[in-house]
Amino acid sequence: MSKPKVLVARAIFPSVLERLSQHFDIETNQADEVWPKEELARRMSDKVGAFTTSSERIDAAVLDACPQLKIVANMAVGYNNFDVDAMSARGVLATNAPDVLTETTADFGFALLMATARRVTESEHYLRAGKWTKWNYEMFSGSDVHGATLGILGMGRIGQGIAKRGAHGFGMNVIYHNRSRLEPGLEAACKARYVSKEELLRTSDHLVLVLPYSASSHHAIGAAELAQMKPTANLINIARGGIVDDAALAVALRNRQIAAAGLDVFEGEPAVHPGLLTVPNVVLTPHIASASVPTRLAMGNLAADNLIGYLVNGKPLTPLNPEILKK
Ligand code: GLV
């Protein structure tokens, strides 16, 4: 019997490909080309399953070109690259890769916060450029992390991981804002206090964004919100590009309206707003918050488990539109 056909849209760990090839006839992309949408649709048109990353947009036009498609498994917890309604309408299962990346991503949120507050990359560039000829009492002075007020916008699993690190590791005063308030047990575990978005903006020394991207979170931090923040505040975005208005942020950083920012995600990435590339008070990383070797492997294996679980056993692990399983 021939095996079901599956497209693996980007390069992935050989061990994950090996697992997939035991069950499926796979078309791979180990050259890691980023296919234009039409090419992705053409390659997916005879497949029943696809393995994607957050770079592949799965929308109605792509789906209409792929009548045999039953599942798309995203190797990411965020899934704003999926039009889940369009997938559900066509009976295509969507899966993401939650949980396995929570702690690693929270670690990175803290790494970016620390690097931003203590001007780690800015001072390294100075040193590498041979500019360090003498020590000075105020060189690269930044802001303190311990004991400061840590604000978190979006309090899902990753937000809670950051809150715990801040409260328990650094004695920070943790406040958060979220669509819904955490139940008291979780709030206590995170030592976090629920506040309005206005209070969060006004009082955070370090504000970390960890909310999902959607039409309602588009530019959740724009010029008006930046204007409410302290001039000494740091803004950290490990959520998604588009949540921050990057053009407005570049202006706020240049004018020192806020002290600094740490950004792992960008509007229109991998392009980065040119205004961000020329200001010194920003730490920039290329969407690597979940990038530890074990976690990226776990994410790849979870996406593969979803494909195997659904196409071979009828039981996906982390479906986003489970209602289609009942049909
Ligand atoms: C990474 O950004 C993810 O959503 O997993």
Outline of the structure:
With 327 residues, the chain is α/β, with parallel strands linked by helices.
Could you say what the CATH topology of the largest domain is called?
A: Rossmann fold
CATH class of the largest domain: Alpha Beta
Give the neighbour order of strands across the main sheet.
Answer: 8-7-6-9-10-11-12
Number of helices: 13
| Class from secondary-structure proportions | alpha/beta
Envelope shape: globular
Number of strands: 12
Bound molecules: glyoxylic acid
How much helix is in the residues? 25-40%
Overall mean confidence score, pLDDT: 97
Report on this model:
This protein is α/β, with parallel strands linked by helices and 327 residues long. It has two domains: 5-98 and 293-326, NAD(P)-binding Rossmann-like Domain (Rossmann fold, 3-Layer(aba) Sandwich); 102-284, NAD(P)-binding Rossmann-like Domain (Rossmann fold), CATH 3.40.50. The radius of gyration is 21 Å and the shape is globular. The strands form two sheets. Strands 8-7-6-9-10-11-12 form a seven-stranded parallel β-sheet, with helices on both faces. A five-stranded parallel β-sheet has the order 2-1-3-4-5. The longest helix has 19 residues, at 293-311. The mean pLDDT is 97. The protein starts with a strand and ends in a 16-residue tail after the last helix. Helix 1 packs parallel to helix 13. It has helices spanning 14-23, 37-44, 60-64, 84-89, 102-117, 120-128, 157-170, 184-190, 197-203, 223-228, 246-254, 274-277, 293-311, and strands at residues 5-8, 25-27, 49-52, 71-74, 93-95, 149-153, 173-177, 192-194, 206-209, 234-237, 260-263, 282-284. It is built from 13 helices and twelve strands. The structure holds glyoxylic acid. The site of glyoxylic acid has 6 residues, from loops.
